[in-house]
Amino acid sequence: MTNHTNWTGDLTEGATIFVATPDGQLSKCRVESVRDRHFSVEGIEREFDKLNACSVDGLLHSYPDDFESRELFGLCQQKNRLKSLQIDSLSLQQVQYMLAGLELARKRYGYQYRGSKAVDTNQKGRLAMSIDDSLHPIQIDYILAGLKLSLLQTEVNHDC
Question: How does pLDDT run across 64-109, given as a tens digit for each residue?
Fold first, then answer.
C-alpha cells in the first residue's frame, strides 16, 4: 500500500478507517475516540499512534478511507469469499465456468495457475488446487465472474 503520511491529522470520531493485521487481512473499522497523540478504534483494545498510524505495540496498521484502501479491502473480501467456497458442493457447470475464467485470465494476461497442468485430476480437484494466495486479483475476478455467469445461466435455464 502507499505510504500515507499525516493522514491522521484530521481524523475525527466516527470516521471510517481500515486496519491491517500482520497476516494481511484488512478490516473496515470506525474510529471511537481521538486524542492528541493516540486514537482508538471500535472493537480493538490497543490504541493507535497518530504519528505512524500503527497500534502502540506495532502489530496493526491503519489506513485512511480512500480509493486504494477500499480497493485492497474489496480484494481481501473476494479472496476470502473464494477460499471459503465449498468446492465439493458446487455443480459441475459452476466448476467449469470458474475454470474457464481462470483459463481466460491465462490466455489474456499470461497468469498461470496450479491446476492448469493437472490434466489427470478431476475438474473440482483442479479448481481446488488453483485457489491459493498466489492468485492475481485479475484471476480472482475472472473466477468469481465465472461463478456468477454459471448462476445466471442456471436462472435463465429455469425460466425457460
Answer: 999 999 998 998 899 888 989 999 999 999 999 999 998 898 888 8
Q: What angle do CA 73, 67, 21 make, to 5 degrees?
A: 30
Of 89, 85, 91, 88, nearest in space to 144 by CA: 85
The verdict on 101 and 153 lying in the same domain is yes
Residue 118 has what pLDDT?
47
Do 96 and 151 sit in the same domain of this protein? Answer: yes
Maximum Cα–Cα distance across the chain: 64
Q: Are residues 65 and 92 in the same domain?
A: no
Residues facing residue 62 across a β-bridge: 19
Residue 77 half-sphere exposure, CB side, CA atoms within 13 Å?
Answer: 9
* Burial of 87 (C-beta count, 10 Å sphere; 0-12/13-18/19+): middle
Q: Which domain holds residue 154?
A: 85-159
Cα gap 133→42, rounded to integer Å? 29
Beta bridge mates, 29: 17
Query: What value, to the nearest 5°, has the Cα angle with vertex 114 and ends 145 and 20?
Result: 65
Cell numbers describing residue 94: 459452476
Phi, psi of 39 (to 5 degrees): -140, 155
